Amino acid sequence: AICLFSACENDLAEVEKVIPKELANVELTKDIEMIYSDSAVIRVKIKSPEMLTHIKKKKADKQEFPKGITVDFYNEYQRVQSELTSKYAVRFEDRKEIEIRDSVVWKSKKPETLETEDLIWDEEKKRVYSNRFVKITTATDVIHGYGFEANEDFTEWKITAVQGQMGIEDFNKQFK
Fold first, then answer.
1. Does the chain have fewer CB atoms within 10 Å around its N or its C terminus?
2. How far apart are CA 54 and CA 52, in angstroms?
3. Residue-wise pLDDT tens digits, 130-159
4. Are 140 and 170 in contact (CB under 8 A)?
5. pTM of this prediction exceeds 0.70
């Protein structure tokens, strides 16, 4: 009778050379498209070339979009109402918030365009806000200010501390 014994031992330092410790609990997904719907009606579509899902204790803790995102917001007729782009974003599962950073541009069909460096999207309240400097370009004006809040489809918005000149129509919009 022949008896063979075999043993395998992994040196943690050798494993970390192949997979760094900070990436051990991270799933990589390429060319993603996430769809949020309400009563079978598409409301939001998120696209990104790459998503990193950080996992803690067997559940997703956050999703990171290191190569940027494109978000389309749809109206009740399944038409895109606005589009949001940025070079980086991270979604926190427990807070139901997405932090959108670096060259954030949000365009509506009105046409109105928001530009800023940092934006928070509260998924539960369906609100988007920023405490940073913002620039909004409308058909008639360019409005600068600090602090911004809007509904998630960018049809209603306000700047907290307006700077610069604007037309009377946009001025009245600030006080609605």
1. N
2. 6
3. 999 999 998 888 999 999 999 877 888 899
4. yes
5. yes
